[in-house]
Write a structure and sequence with these properties.
By secondary structure, the protein is mainly α. It is built from two helices and no strands. It has a domain of about 45 residues. Keywords: Membrane, Transmembrane, Transmembrane helix.
């Protein structure tokens, strides 16, 4: 396993955990916001969780897109040059 494969696998694991945490936070936020509890603090806490989860999803999507672009550029630049066949040799 080289360094590029290690970074890619680590990034995939971290992004999977982050997206799972986003879904959990978003779900809990909607449960709190839509609950029949008469306390406005609870509903406001749910709204805050939803807003934070949406911002987190935005930054996760942006970060993963930038990482994918950088990874693509590095893999295309770091690839070995093509072998030129000279038939007269």
């Amino acid at each position: 396993m080289n360094i590029i494969e290690f970074i890619n696998s680590l990034t995939i694991k971290v992004m999977s955990i982050a997206w799972g945490l986003f879904l959990l936070t978003w779900s809990i936020g909607w449960l709190l916001k839509g609950s029949p509890i008469p306390f406005m603090r609870v509903k406001r806490a749910g709204q805050d969780l939803i807003e934070d989860a949406v911002w987190a999803a935005f930054w996760l999507a942006l970060g993963s897109s930038i990482f994918a672009l950088v990874s693509y550029i590095v893999s295309s630049v770091a690839s070995p040059p093509p072998v030129i066949y000279n038939g007269t040799a």
